[in-house]
Input
Amino acid sequence: MIEILTSAQLSKARATGALVAHILQTLKSRSIVGTNLLEIDQWAKAMIMDAGADSCYVDYAPSFGRGPFGHYICTSVNDGVLHGLPHDYVLADGDLLSLDLAVLLDGIAADSAISFIVGPTRPTTSVALIDATQRALQAGIAAAGPGARIGDLSHAIGTVLTDSGYQINTDFGGHGIGSTMHQDPHIANNGRPGRGYQLRPGLLLALEPWIMVDTAELVTDADGWTLRSATGCVTAHSEHTIAITDDGAEILTLPK
Output
């Protein structure tokens, strides 16, 4: 399903996006050396409930996971890149943590992910990974607008990632979003320009470049959810929900 939002729904999407951004930034500030991933999950749960919102994850049971997910946020550490199931792990100095959050507020969903390094240590490899995903995300957003095609966004994202020296896995990528978290169209993190669905005002998209240092191959953790790099290398993931407008693209999950 590809959903085109009305102006009233778009106003609701802005509120949902602002909430997601606020929660992620709050969790980032609290995620210090010694923080347990299960604490992060409980903080996310409390903030979602306090806002009168609903989690898009806790009851989520897609074919690719051992569902239901049962938690309120994805917490992926170091070699974990996607769908990280919160568990009893205490963050250490230099860990690369990715937080991925999607909530539903007043009938409209928003989805965003951030990657950052915990503690004062700044491993060069991790810094470069995060920077590449952020630049790729911005390139994808810049390519979005009425009349553009999905392939234009995929190509823009993929060009940044490949030019930065990373391999790209296209099994998981961005997606449409609206009254539900995951909708068509799929937005691969690499592709050919001029191909695919043509964007229209009112369309919501979640763009999410993610990469691994030296591989494009994923393995599924024993928890049935967490996707890790096949070589054990460090990974990173960045995501924003955007709305296609008459003038281009509006980032709904941008921190204030």
About this structure: Residues 7-30 form the longest helix (24 residues). The radius of gyration is 17 Å. The mean pLDDT is 97.
